[in-house]
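User: I'll paste a sequence; please echo it back and then give the predicted structure.

Assistant: Echoing your sequence first, then the prediction.
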Amino acid sequence: MRVVASTPTTGGLYRLDQLIAAGARRSLWLTDAYFVGTTLYVQALKSAAIGGVDVRLLVPGAASDVPFVRSLSRAGYRPLLEAGVRVFEWNGPMLHAKTAVADSRWARVGSTNLNLTSWIGNWELDVAVRDEPFAAAMEQIYLQDLSQATEVVLTAQRDVRVRNPVEPRPRPPLAGGTRSSGRRAVAGALGIGSVVSASVTNHRVLGPAEARVMASVGVVLLALTGIIVQWPKVLAIPVAVMLGWVALALLVRSVTLNLRRKRARRVGRGGAANRRSSWWSSS
């Protein structure tokens, strides 16, 4: 068993998850509460599925406590489904598990979600276990969970559809979860760029799940356009402040790097002088 303690900007588990996706040979079963996969990770899952690996993803259904993240998760189903990844939505109350089981030998359990904020921006704690009895037990639990889930499939028209949906009544968010839900919403917002880019460039087929995201972004942009036209200073002042802050940050960073380089040169010259002195002394 290995303990993986992630801190912001380290990305240790992000690399591990990609490594496991690349190394799986027979199966990779994932459960996640707030799935918004990065392009690299989605490509790793797609490659595994295309290569014959039984890749499955179990995510929350209608009871998700952050509906916006659920919409972004659904917007990312299509490339996974087209590659052969099987996607399931949990029919019970909010699903908060974060697990992975690979090849009936390796398993992961912890706090890290499959999204960039959790991988890169948070303090997380997971355990990775290489033990066949433990992995077998995890697989049995996973199969039991799938019996309470609904599989998402592509129709003949290539639309994303839920097969035989059994939608429970959504549960209200737990008290005290505003801060964590806000973080997850920010993490989910990372997927908006992909949908907007696809809608503008038309480089991939979009479906009903993406339509909801595009409509939301369109309404927000129209509202901002109206505000800017009516009150230009509403945009001008924040932009000026932001540009000034970026300019100061760049200048400070430039000065810091120059000072560091000069200090390194002085140290290097001193070291070279010491080496020459030592050589002459030994001669």
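The domain at 2-221 is CATH 3.30.870.10 (Endonuclease; Chain A). The mean pLDDT is 79.
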